[in-house]
């Protein structure tokens, strides 16, 4: 009988404590990470939370289940502790910001910010987000197999290679602005490198007989990584000479990087240049 009353009291206490926490809960509003971080770069994670009346609390950052960094705040003073194996910038990190340098590919995945208040309520909230880590090649795609002159060639095969990307790059070919048809493509096995990057090569067979009625053929290779890296290189095959209808090849290589807004913090320059090489 006594025992039962005691239980009821506990239940009542729990309801009261819960009710109290409705008015003074810790809330994690947002965890912000860059949508894509480049391997080896410095990355800042932001945990935006409201404390209400808590002045003693701890912020903890987890990568998956692994505790990476924690800060205990007591009346405005912070005690920081690095845990685990990630390279945390202690000076730049605090109860709202976590700064990692030299981000490895292994940092890709869910990161969560967990804020917990002091006893007796232990008001607590957690929020997570996904970090992607990528390796972008310094150079854009490279086209090989361009002949010095077309002569009497009726077809030719070009390769386009995107070196050392993570995740593996995609290659798209366009001929005179149209997507190449699959039958004209030659897909080679990707090359895996020890640093976990991949080199991708896709070839294209170009028929020269009928299209050469037009003054030139524009063949464009586009290298893509995720949704934020697009670089193109273009070869223009031109008919040269009128008398013998001999053809020369002129190649225009252009590299451009069209970076959508959501990747912008990681690319500070927009590269666009054209080199024109003519062969006679
Ligand atoms: C935190 O979130 C609030 C509400 O969305 C916003 O007004 C504030 O600017 C954010 N703070 C930071 C540092 O992003
Ligand atoms: C944490 O550091 C960032 C800059 O690194 C600063 O903007 C922010 O106000 C700091 N937060 C706290 C709670 O000190
Ligand atoms: C295209 O690449 C493949 C695989 O690397 C190679 O075997 C082939 O010779 C290349 N062809 C041209 C035209 O460069
Ligand atoms: C193409 O031209 C070369 C010399 O330039 C010649 O030896 C060859 O027979 C020609 N091929 C065809 C199919 O006309
Ligand atoms: C490559 O991936 C493996 C397996 O995910 C990992 O153990 C290794 O550390 C990675 N190497 C590099 C250089 O990122």
Automatic annotation (TrEMBL):
Domain called Ig-like: residue spans: 24-127
InterPro entries: Ig-like_dom, Ig-like_dom_sf, Ig-like_fold
Transmembrane found in the keyword field: yes
Membrane spanning residue stretches: 264-279
Leader sequence residues: 1-24
Lineage top rank: taxon: Eukaryota
PROSITE patterns: IG_LIKE (PS50835)
Keywords: Membrane, Signal, Transmembrane, Transmembrane helix
PANTHER family to which the protein is assigned, alphabetical: BEAT PROTEIN, BEATEN PATH IIIA, ISOFORM D-RELATED
Name of this protein: Ig-like domain-containing protein
